[in-house]
């Protein structure tokens, strides 16, 4: 009951109108704001990692093999990964070829923002988050701080693309009816001022640059990152958030994550949502979001093969699992340097959208039920609970196994309807410890077949024995009881 009470409290917080009040630059005040309700109702967003790193588009394949970290692995790291990246770089580009020289090859000449937005809409996502600037410091919009501090064109407008990549995509995404947000890295690995005087960097580069981004493009989401080398005080994050919540043009709508200092991740949930990265996620009672790539990397990695990409059905299971626990999925794609979304990524997104077209009622605007999932008999597999690299694979947990129990179904609810998202067909679907109202009816989303249910002790038995091949839209189908 405690878990349900906490989630109900969170819903009250996030669904209430944000009061027109002034927030001071401290967490006690900022946490009173709450999180705009639209975010937790949206459930599904698209993450995009795109920058100069799309030119080499190389990383050692495996967990944490992030191609967007190429420059750091090349010049900042001192480990086996560094050796492999350095060997690749020297062989293909030469020992004297600097990372900054890749910018001349970041042309984005095939970039079609309308086509991107169309794919995102067809995926069923409700919001998009683009890397406005990653740790390399390169901005996808025209920003004077980037150029002045680097002493060279270091944004997409003054640089090689000669185009406001961020602005053009923002316009098309909004035309498609989706909300637009931005990832923004607080720090930059090799920024000369950051290396010399961190306090001056925060005051003279990061803060005005952040305000420039927000004022010009009015994001609905800000995914802050790169916070771990300093506390929130050193970043002056409370001051920046007070400006965001009080004075910015998006003060009422904008949603922000929990990455604002080495001491903030996992905290301050009154003002920020919690982030999980290739993690096991969280349980009902908090507002949270899981981010993952379709493969191992966020940025495009040419070394990944078809075996490194999650299957479409597995991605749907990932989404369902997260939503059943009250979270959002932010699924990442990595475009190429010439501006294309790899076709395999497009296919995965469109496949998710096809499932949501039929079953989205069980996903959008839902809340968790008293149980998030139902297991078969047997010992449940061990789960490492962590918000980063937990090796949590829910796609394996739905498969029958001699060693462990498997997940038979996930649950969500909306109003007085219970949605049972089954992971496989059974003639008799037993929903444990559930007693519907006597007048309740059972149905299958996307099907006009009539099904019945009966009460058997504490359990509800839904009769699916009359179904024939083709009556179900796939292995993952939804039984609605209302």
TrEMBL record:
Every Glycoside hydrolase family 29 N-terminal domain range = 15-361
- Alphabetically list the UniProt keywords: Glycosidase, Hydrolase, Signal
Superkingdom assignment: Bacteria
Extract the InterPro entries matched here: FUC_metazoa-typ (IPR016286), GH (IPR017853), Glyco_hydro_29 (IPR000933), Glyco_hydro_29_N (IPR057739), Glyco_hydro_b (IPR013780)
Gene Ontology BP terms: fucose metabolic process; glycoside catabolic process
Family affiliation: Belongs to the glycosyl hydrolase 29 family.
Origin species: Chitinophaga agri
What EC number(s) does the entry state? 3.2.1.51
This protein's GO CC annotations: lysosome
Record's signal peptide: 1-20
Name of the featured protein? alpha-L-fucosidase
One GO molecular-function annotation for this sequence? alpha-L-fucosidase activity
Physiological role: Alpha-L-fucosidase is responsible for hydrolyzing the alpha-1,6-linked fucose joined to the reducing-end N-acetylglucosamine of the carbohydrate moieties of glycoproteins.
